[in-house]
Amino acid sequence: MSDRTSTINSNEVGVFTALQSVVGRYRVPIGALLLVFSVRPVVSMDLLLGYGAVANSILIWMLFAASFNILLGYTGLLSFGHAMFLGIGAYVTAIGLARFDSPFVLSALVALLVAGVVAYLIARLIAQKGEIYFAMLTLAFGTTAHFVANYDPGGLTGGTTGIAGGAVPAWIETERGLKYVSLGGFQFDWYFFVAAAVFVGLLCIWQLVRSPFGRTLVAIRENRDLARAMGINTYRYKVWAFTLSGVVAAYAGAILEVNEQGATLSLLTVQTSGDVILMTVLGGANYFFGPLAGAFVWLFAEDFLTDFETLVLPLEQFPLIRVDLSGVLSYWQFFLGLLFVVAVVVAPREGIWGLFRSVVKKAVDRIKSERDNA
Amino acid sequence: MSLLEVAGLQAGYETGQVLFGVDLSVEEDEVVSLLGRNGAGKTTTMHAIVGANVPTVLGGEIRFDGTDLRERRNYQISELGLSLVPEGRRCFRDLTVEENLRLAANHAEDPLSIDDVWDQFPELKDMHDRPSKNMSGGEQQMLAIARSLITNPQLILMDEPCEGLAPLIVRRIESIIKDINGKRDVSVLLVEQNVAVAMAVAERHYVIDEGEIVEELSTEQLRKDEALRQEYLGV
Amino acid sequence: MPETDTGERPGTEADVTDAALGATGLTKRFGGIVAVDDVNIAVPTGELRAVIGPNGAGKTTLFNTLTHALAPTGGEGYLHGEEITHVPQEQRPHRGLARSFQSNELFNELTVLENVRIVVQTSETGTFSFGLLGDGRSQHVDRASEILESVGLSRKRETTAKNLSHGDQRRLGIAMALATDPSVLLLDEPTSGLGSKETGQITDLIRTVQEDLGLTLMLIEHDMGIVLSISDRITVLNRGRVLATGTPAEVQANQEVQDAYLGGMKEEI
Amino acid sequence: MNEIPLPGSSSRSLSLAEAAIWSVLLLVTVLSAVTRPGLFVDQVLGGLVYGLILVLIALGLSIVLGLLGIVNFAHGALFMLGAYFSYQFMAVWGVSFWIALIAAPLVVGLVGVVIERGVLRYLYDEDPLNGLLATFGLSLMIGEATRAIWGGAPKSVAAPQILSKGMDLGITTVARIRLFTVLVAVIVIAAVYLLIERTDFGLSVRAGVLDREMAEFLGVNMNVRFISMFVLGATIAGLGGVLRGTAVGMDVAMDEQFIILAFVVVVVGGIGSLFGSVVAGLLIGGTAYLTPLYLSTLASITNIEAINVPGIGGLVPYLVMIVVLLVRPRGLFGQEGFLE
Lengths: 374, 235, 269, 340
What we know:
The complex is a heterotetramer of chains A (374), B (235), C (269) and D (340).
Chain A: H1 10-15, H2 18-25, H3 27-43, H4 55-75, H5 83-99, H6 104-126, H7 131-151, E1 172-175, E2 178-183, E3 186-189, H8 190-210, H9 212-222, H10 224-229, H11 234-260, H12 270-283, H13 290-307, E4 310-314, E5 319-324, H14 326-329, H15 332-346, H16 351-373
Antiparallel strand pairs in A: 1-2, 2-3, 4-5
Chain B: E1 4-13, E2 16-26, E3 31-35, H1 42-50, E4 56-64, E5 67-68, E6 82-85, H2 97-106, H3 114-120, H4 122-126, H5 137-149, E7 155-159, H6 167-184, E8 187-192, H7 195-201, E9 204-209, E10 212-218, H8 219-224, H9 226-233
Parallel strand pairs in B: 3-8, 3-9, 6-7, 7-8
Antiparallel strand pairs in B: 1-2, 1-4, 4-5, 9-10
Helix pairs in contact in B: 2-5, 5-6
Chain D: H1 15-35, H2 37-68, H3 75-92, H4 97-118, H5 128-150, H6 161-164, E1 166-168, E2 173-175, H7 176-198, H8 200-210, H9 212-217, H10 222-248, H11 254-269, H12 274-302, H13 312-327
Antiparallel strand pairs in D: 1-2
Helix pairs in contact in D: 1-2, 1-12, 2-7, 2-10, 2-11, 2-12, 3-4, 3-5, 3-10, 3-11, 4-10, 7-8, 7-10, 8-10, 11-12, 11-13, 12-13
């Protein structure tokens, strides 16, 4: 639990120096910073994918999953319609760029505003419903958003084809399939822009969940009746949690729009909403980094397992067993689904990140006790 | 050998142990009461005996008619002739009176006929097709007792059957308990806070406090021992 | 309206508009069952009022109705002379009316300090506050620590609430109620499930906070020893109705109370 | 402070507006039926078949939800498996439709046993969200397994001769398999109703829904009943899959599409009410098929082509649900306090 706020245990304070305590206190932003700039180098390693193109989407989906976890992990609300806000972010930005020739920043700001207003209005209608009803109603509103985009009102959304042409900001340059940002004479890799933007988004979420507002959300998740008895207006907190989570999702959507050079209808499907649930729970809704881990594993596995063909044991150099897995692993979702089911049954809020933490903690404890014994 | 024999029973919940060695027994054809203030462990004892989901039994023995109850699942106790009238009645709210009774009879070894029950509880017969949620507290309590009785048990465990009921109804329930004990030779273990009710129907009384039986006495002794009533029952 | 009376005789109450906490004709029905039946109550400022009655008498439902955790079916509620019948539950702590729960209701996964700190924060910022800037840990910690000190939980401030002992959970519940900075405090069986040693400690704690903070207290309690020793006056409930109200001596002497609640020893059957 | 009003507390004093709405509906119905009788009958029947298929899935969902408190997202996958198993029986092994009609649902029932024993029993008495999430993962697994075994391309099977012909109703022709679907669904629904309301087994199941532990104290072995009801629900969903697969074919997307709509049916009908599920299934099937027709009728009368929204039929179930839940928070026949 302590991961959320990086609480410093009182017995640790004596041990850590002041510097270490600052690191401990800000370990979430520091971790996030390290994370966003290491995703591409890591996935590009030969042992893993050998290429880094997927890193951009991984980062954006991490942010999207983290925005979703404001609801599921911190407030305890399960939404089946979160894709709606990712989609609004992408669509409104694309409409601004392609249909009104407005600059990217303005389009994106309008996108966040629209997402916020839509989320606020929906939340006011449904925030007080029981969890099953809440999930079903978010699903209904999400489906409605998909319908509207598909209906192509006023030729804005482009129907089934989505918005493809003219939806890239002027400061994006493409060379041989790779995107570069060119701002005021500087030119740098699009990946760094995504990393910085995602980092800013993660920082906002971190600040949100550690703020008094965010801690109140956790209290509501833990015991709604007690929260009310102690003077907390649970309804308004839920409404604003839903709204802010929608705005951050739209922010991820705006970045995704540039990354994919347009908005596609698939962003608004129930499947997208389902994927973000799967990622978040698989990664561990209990932790700030849980959904990020889940998004990474999900998207990485998609590329890695689909490419994976032959399993050689124990080592490439000494092949004793050679299994052709290409036929099986192309159905990678089956195995991730299995992992997901096991995670929910064994420890529903822990996920991969919780498992990773407890393994690390055990190892540290063992080293400590060995050192003490010696 | 006693009909019900509980020895050294320890039990508790997630939040901590509640029973620290309860010893009690019920003989055939006897009405015994288990007295104690709130939180003393009365309902926990009852639930431990019948094998409820909570509490967890941590140690001790529970024997009914020679059978080790700890080996039995909660749905296997009724076939042994042990029946529970739980705290708060727990009638199936959407089922009618007759359905409540039929359900119990369906799963008993040698049930009474429904007419036997109507004879004992004529007021229930008049409302046989009414869902139990539409009945008053007293009527629901009658139904809960009737539901136990129709399984033709050897022993009924009753958990505060007079809770929140008007004096007239309390009298009626007292007479029912005496009646089923007298006419049908059913033993009753009665959990009560109301000493008057316990003294009216039971011959022998256990007093439980902080998870242990602290006293076992006759009605006469209980009547006389004001200090004990003050200390353990707050009376 | 109840009689305007000094409240000397058992079964009578002072004027609700003079009282810290009051109710007239308060009623709560569940389907066919009347759990709280036309209850008049008026607890003067600074009084410690015990509510007793057999199981199922409607004591907790009375608390739930007074705090609007359950909307009353009829009647009015008053706080410091002001009518609050329709004030929502979450606003009442901000007006000075707080409560603890019979079962241990806590924010289970949070630490002891966090449990109290969130209530302090709520008490200072209102039923809703954006409070997006700042750090949830540093604000209001001092006040929360002070309260934990006063209930004797300082050493356990970093313990997760669900891992506390039963007695400490009760303390934490009281600490959270105190953190709302109440003028009127309702305690629902603060000693239930505790051993005699812990019961004594909690009783002392209740007495201390009442004296230190000048609280008006209303308390559901089964232990007659505690009730007789600490309460100024006692209200006896039976089947949802007020049977009698008076000083411990008056209530003990009341025949009706003897019959209905205390076991009716003299009653012949 | 609390300036936000709580939704869903509307009054019942809208009789005039209601009367207006009903009379407009009636008028449009009559107009549609008169101007395009063939299409009207087609749509009514289409809605009926579609709605009944939804009811077949919703029955199992509703039972599992009421009895075990689990929102079984994998129930749609069982429905899909029914269709694919019938394909395996009929197209691959060459078994007759009539045998597949019985055998495929039974095999689905077996899969149900595996799911119940392998996963769901660990989730009883847990947070309902966990059940929803775990079964969501299961449906993903079954979906991928289906894709791996039978491929991603749509499949179809040939209905037997007697059902493949059309039946001439004068104004339109109806495929007999659709009428057969209606017949089977009605029989199944009636049988489930009788089982639950009229038998001792059903009595013990109803008691278990209300207070599981008390029923066990009275000697009911609830576990056995839970498993049987789960398997029954799975089998019925499988049967629905066979009927749907035979009538219009199958693909791997039918899982998600139908489970979501079946949930909509359960929620609109009111969680815990079988009768509500039946009514809601027919309501949703009917509105999904009739709304496009009504809108096109309205468009042709008023000459406003914009009314004729393409693809509106797919959205109607959700709109119905939003409206129903905002007006009646527990659905049409839902009970107080259930899963709130």
